[in-house]
Amino acid sequence: MTTGADGRGLAGFAALLADPTRAGFCLALLDGRAWTAGELARAAGVAASTASDHLTRLVAGGLLAEERQGRHRYIRLADPGVAQLVEELAARAPTPATPPRTLRAASEGAALAYARTCYDHLAGRLGVLLHDALLTRGVLDRSGGLALTGTGVTWLAGLGVPVEPLRATRRPLVRDCLDWTERRPHLAGAVGAALCGRFLDLGWTVRGTGRAIRVTPAGRDALAETLGLDPALLAPPASRGSGPARA
Amino acid sequence: MTTGADGRGLAGFAALLADPTRAGFCLALLDGRAWTAGELARAAGVAASTASDHLTRLVAGGLLAEERQGRHRYIRLADPGVAQLVEELAARAPTPATPPRTLRAASEGAALAYARTCYDHLAGRLGVLLHDALLTRGVLDRSGGLALTGTGVTWLAGLGVPVEPLRATRRPLVRDCLDWTERRPHLAGAVGAALCGRFLDLGWTVRGTGRAIRVTPAGRDALAETLGLDPALLAPPASRGSGPARA
DNA sequence: GGCACGGTTCGGGCCGCGCCGAAGAGTCCG
DNA sequence: CGGACTCTTCGGCGCGGCCCGAACCGTGCC
Fold it and tell me: Does one domain contain both B71 and B156?
């Protein structure tokens, strides 16, 4: 009576992410960098032996990839598709029901809501603003699915991002990625990744702690000029008080 | 040291799919129809009480939606996004390692590989052929992300599928969906769903058992004429022998 | 060589989860 | 009303998972 595939394959795969420790590993790795096994163990608060076991399973399941160097075991997400998958699942998961307990945690949360990397592209308020600006500027078009326009190609070239090399990859040029703080789409795909990297190269943005991204004063000016982004909206998260409170 | 969100939210959500029975429910519901709790229980081979418990959790988790009618509890996927998520996870999951044991199962597998619904759009060999034909005909364009072209809009209108109503939905017009038998993309999104429904309305396709789809003789002619699909490639799965063996 | 360090392997304990059957609540029908 | 049916609730059982600490291996440094 069981027509076709039973759920064992899917269940086994989903089980990889169904453990808080393993899920925490994947979320940490969403910053796009390679972590050592020990770093991940400490970040998750488990013994090294526990982490080692989990990592072996995640690698075997195709979610993570490893690279051994000397006595270190470097771990990263297997490919951008995994990052997308994890982000989508995280976006659908009910909030961890853990309101920030400490001031430090609250300010970290604000910094992440302001701007962060989502694997290799920009997310948070900055990511959504960028996405919207690219649409109004005609770099992107949404009349029939999200697509990069001809003017978009030249605009990118002017910014120092040639599009042709990006076409060579198997990755879609542009793609929606649901932002879990803004609950609205931001730009992913090869172009999203290239833009994120280019902004860093140009010094418009710099990496903060963890996945956090900060916009430099020069970046604020440049984004206002090239994309018409309101510098006021790009103001960094209020250190105290003046910013709108967020539940 | 744990910057930002821990993995509990994600893990709890993934755990919903990490059980073979629950995963089987979701896979069965990928046919886009509403099943009763009892039907799902029988299909999965568990007691009604067990299924009831699982379904309650899946509904609470936002993966499924229920509708109570009299003494029946109708269950369907919560929204198309869930279908996409489940398909993506299933596509990445290693094959269930269950080569078909019976002749009946083998022929069912062949029928599904030939053509099936993927929630509400077409998948399988037919789905991939359709996707490719739409690209070569200029209905879709992939030069910068997957998009519906202007000629595509008129082509759809000629087929009796007005695009304007589709724009009203929050759903993307066109979207890639990775086919788990062909390992290549087919067309999803609002247009993919509309095309699938239109083909059924026109009598070009009919539903088989489960998620299987069959192409009628009239449908073969029509698809050849309007899209240039080779009728030979649309031949139904060989009942025995002559078809290419598939691992 | 000696030591510190990162990672892995192994054994054991514990908690949670999935399963069932039996009993009960609600619905439809004769 | 009484019977058939669907679904739910509740105990109880058993397996499998997650975790740790201790011992072990390999690397890099002094």
Answer: no
